[in-house]
Amino acid sequence: MIHLLLVDDHAMVRAGIRQFLEESAEITVTAEADDASQAQTILKNNIFDMAVVDIHLPQINGFELTKWIKQHHPNLPVLILTAHDDEPYVVAALQAGANGYVLKDATAEELTRAVQTVYEGQNYISSAVAGHLFHQITQPMVEDNSQLTERELEVLTLVADGLTNKEIGVHLDISSRTVQTHLANVYAKLDTHSRTKAVTTAIELGLLKPGG
Predict the structure, then answer these.
(1) Are the C-beta atoms of residues 114 and 124 closer than 8 Å to each other?
(2) pLDDT for the residue 201
(3) Which entry of 138, 150, 182, 184 is 20 to 30 Å from 110 by CA?
(4) Which residues contact 104 (CB under 8 A, 6 or more apart)?
(5) Beta partners for residue 33, in sequence order
């Protein structure tokens, strides 16, 4: 029997995933957590065969939780279960130490196969996002995830600090138009369309720390 810890902040989603997983007689969801802190507490007092983790969690995201698990429970496999099929998320998950990556719209059969594959000590990438990703996991995160330049990161950091384009221009001694150009490049590379979304995506990918 494969004993799982399921981490997702939506109870209805957890219920659906649990139903899918437990269609297999070989899999049981032993415990559930709705955020990373609860998952950490559960892991300190229980033994599991695998953690199934969503990316979007309150406070501490799934990437950071995966890193924590690999630091404190290095032998515990982590399977990321998410709605994101974008390459940067997959690469970030693998760099965090995840052993597998599967989409939430996967069939029950694929989800079961993913769990069994990771449990057997192999990596699993959902067929929808598989391909040329594995060769990227040893490269620096900024270079692989987004190709953000040093200047673009500087601009994005100042955006996260709440500065306007004009204030950023003064701080970096560049024009407001140049700031706009850098932001347009950031939006394109992170596949976002707003300052707020660019910052939150960068934090999720580990490009920025929460708070700037």
Answers:
(1) yes
(2) 84
(3) 138
(4) 13, 17, 81, 82, 83
(5) 7
Structure tokens at 210: 């929460």
Q: Is the dihedral of CA 191, 195, 197, 203 positive or negative?
A: positive
- Give me 201's structure tokens: 């995506």
Output the CA–CA distances (angstroms, integers) from residue 97 to 22, 63, 73, 151, 167, in the order listed: 25, 8, 12, 28, 38
Average pLDDT over residues 11-30: 93
196, 188 Cβ separation under 8 angstroms: no
In this structure, the answer to whether residues 6 and 110 fall within a common structural domain is yes
**Residue 57 within a domain:** yes
d(CA 57, CA 104): 15
- In tens, the pLDDT along 99-146 reads 999 999 888 899 999 999 999 999 898 877 765 454 444 344 444 444
- Report residue 132 as tokens: 């040329």
Structure-token pair, residue 141: 């995160």
Structural domain boundaries, residue 86: 2-136
Q: Quote the pLDDT of residue 136.
A: 46
